[in-house]
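Quick one, tokens below. Sequence please?
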């Protein structure tokens, strides 16, 4: 695990950044903050009541003396923050509504990032995923050219095949499905569902590179041979992504039988497949990949089966079981 973070830690120590924690009195947050401060990795801002944060830190024997603790209730720049949020929301929320929201640490912490007081934010110890992401979408918003945000998690293991000990998997928490964005007036598709899924794959690959992974992307569906037509994450969508994705990153498309041509793209650091290379994925390859992947993670042989059918206790096993 240390190897994964070592390059990032070195960069941060050379160019210190500030992180804001939205749940300043949570023991897990206090422990993380104390470690970051002790190692000189990040400057720390804690959001919460100062007395409560210090009492919780003392109870857990965590040293956060070098952290800045900001309480929304007595923050000197609160009025400016409200005015800025009203402008950002463009009539969607009144000054009174913004004031109420900024009393909450998730919105307050996000505005600290937006206004340049902090460079990044960590939340979700007590807030839900939705309540952590929503303020960022409303206030920080997406970067230029992006149509959506996504998430991924990194699996870092001591076992397994070389090249598969560290794996980035997305989207794991944000997008449930992908649909076309359509112009309400004309009916024209402005952003296709396949483009959105491709964007998630590209951003996951970019994140993977930050953690020392040479990204080779597999896009999987739960459908084979087009059997899931009409389902957003079925084979039809994964089939369509190929025309979009393979112009940008090195990719192995593991889904329905499909061949796509690799072109040139923006991600020169990732796109190391020669132009004209033809990559073909088949449904059996997708199944084998899933099986092998699960086997790698668990260390046990894995076969596929259909569960939940009316078999009265007997699972219907897939013909490709190994």
């Amino acid at each position: 695990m240390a190897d994964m973070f070592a390059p990032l830690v070195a960069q941060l120590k050379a160019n210190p950044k500030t992180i804001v924690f939205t749940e300043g009195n949570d023991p897990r947050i206090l422990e993380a903050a104390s470690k970051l401060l002790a190692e000189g990795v990040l400057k720390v801002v804690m959001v919460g009541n100062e007395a409560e944060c210090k009492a919780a830190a003392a109870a857990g024997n965590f040293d956060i003396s070098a952290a800045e603790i900001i309480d929304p209730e007595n923050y000197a720049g609160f009025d400016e923050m409200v005015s800025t949020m009203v402008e950002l929301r463009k009539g969607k929320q009144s000054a009174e509504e913004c004031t109420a929201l900024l009393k909450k640490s998730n919105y307050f912490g996000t505005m600290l990032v937006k206004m340049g007081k902090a460079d990044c934010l960590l939340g979700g110890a007590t807030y839900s995923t939705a309540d952590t992401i929503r303020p960022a979408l409303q206030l920080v918003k997406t970067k230029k050219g992006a149509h959506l945000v996504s998430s991924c998690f990194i699996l870092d293991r001591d076992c397994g095949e070389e090249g598969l000990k560290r794996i980035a998997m997305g989207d794991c928490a944000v997008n449930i499905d992908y649909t076309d964005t359509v112009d309400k007036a004309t009916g024209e598709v402005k952003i296709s569902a396949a483009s959105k899924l491709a964007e998630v794959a590209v951003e996951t690959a970019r994140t993977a590179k930050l953690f020392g992974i040479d990204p080779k992307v597999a896009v999987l569906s739960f459908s084979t041979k087009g059997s899931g037509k009409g389902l957003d994450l079925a084979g039809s969508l994964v089939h369509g992504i190929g025309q979009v994705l393979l112009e940008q990153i090195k990719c192995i498309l593991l889904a329905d039988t499909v061949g796509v041509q690799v072109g040139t793209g923006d991600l020169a650091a990732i796109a190391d497949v020669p132009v004209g290379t033809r990559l073909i994925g088949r449904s059996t390859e997708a199944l084998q990949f899933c099986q092998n992947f699960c086997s790698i993670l668990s260390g046990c042989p894995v076969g596929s089966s259909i569960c939940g059918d009316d078999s009265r206790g007997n699972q219907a096993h897939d013909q490709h079981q190994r």
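The longest strand covers residues 43-47. The two ends are 33 Å apart (CA to CA).
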